Amino acid sequence: MIIGTQILDRKLPSVAEGLACDRLFILLEERVSELHPELIPRLSASLSEPPTTLILPGGEESKTTERLGALWAWLSEGGATRRSVLVVIGGGAFLDLGGFAASTYMRGIRTVYVPTTLLSMVDASVGGKTAIDFLGVKNLIGSFHPASEVLVDIDFLRTLPIEELLSGYGEVIKHATLMGTDAWREVLRIGDPMGLMDEEWQALIEKSIAYKTSVVEADPREQGLRRILNIGHTVGHALEAYSHAHPSLRTLPHGEAVVFGLLIESYITSLIKGNDRTYIRQLMALARELYSPYYYTCKAYPELLRLMRQDKKNRRGAITIMGVIAPGEIVPIELEDEGLIRQGLDFLRETFGN
């Protein structure tokens, strides 16, 4: 992991040389290309041999079997071998797609990730998870395929729309919740992060990445400890998928959906465990400062519950959440009673924005 400002064209040549690849392939997200038209010419000039380059649209809608097949064809037609390296430059969904293509082409070729959004910097670039969506379920088909190197260039944050920056901040909030009281207090102190300087962003991102890396190294295949990284995600993924399936509603960015999921799941946890709700009140105040309400009605509950039942964490037919009792105190909870989940959905619907 290499983190800094204006590092990409300075560091990529040495990374490529260290990997001793026979060919370098660069997969670039279309929006990044539009915002940084000089990027590919600049990278090509810095490398000893010009890379094979492909520019494609990104976003969650890109994570399809059709797009995956197009990437396999591009690699094959370009002469990629098992000694080749795929550099993926883009947001989290784009890293998911490119990483999964690399993990399955010739049973796996190496990747270098260049995350260009805050969300992809603190989440998708770490941990080796790759995936595409299938049958309307987020990340249903995937693999574990850690990148050989990750280059985090803070400069990319300068061109991020505010809503994407705040979406990524949702994962920073999640990591702070997991890290414990000190990290949580720091996030509360920051409040709205829009005024942070480059060095402050770098320090925040480094802490978040270091925490996630420590969890992943302790449990690389998500057999135990790593499940704590899923706080807010059971309900959050359902809300996110529901918003994409209903274009008449506001589409929820991933990190924002995770924060809403955290609120709902933490409330459900308090109903079961009877714990103090200070964390929920603090998170609600922070969420109201950063995010707009997401409006849904109780008519959405059957579909949301169906989506939750498709979550990969579920066991024995029960919907599984990682419940937050307080920052740093997480417990797994298996929910057989849909009534509790409905109460959690009621809680967000009736309190957020009021």
Would you spell out the secondary-structure blueprint of this structure?
Layout: E1 2-4, H1 8-19, E2 24-29, H2 30-35, H3 39-46, E3 52-56, H4 65-77, E4 85-90, H5 92-104, E5 110-115, H6 118-124, E6 129-134, E7 137-144, E8 149-153, H7 162-179, H8 181-190, H9 198-218, H10 233-245, H11 254-273, H12 278-290, H13 301-309, E9 319-326, E10 329-335, H14 338-351
Parallel strand pairs: 1-8, 2-3, 2-4, 4-5, 5-8
Antiparallel strand pairs: 6-7, 9-10
CATH superfamily of the largest domain: Dehydroquinate synthase-like - alpha domain
Uncertain residue ranges: none
Query: Share of helix among residues?
Result: 40-55%
Structural class: alpha/beta
Give a verbal description of the structure.
This protein folds into two domains: 2-159, Rossmann fold, CATH 3.40.50; 166-351, Up-down Bundle (Dehydroquinate synthase-like, alpha domain). Helices cover 50% and strands 17% of the residues. The chain has 14 helices and ten strands. The chain has a six-stranded parallel sheet with strand order 1-8-5-4-2-3, with helices on both faces. Strands 6-7 form a two-stranded antiparallel ribbon. The chain has a two-stranded antiparallel ribbon with strand order 9-10. Strand 6 (129-134) and strand 7 form a beta hairpin. Helix 7 packs antiparallel against helix 8. The longest helix has 21 residues, at 198-218. The mean pLDDT is 94.
Features:
Dehydroquinate synthase-like, alpha domain; 2 domains; Rossmann fold; 354 residues; alpha/beta
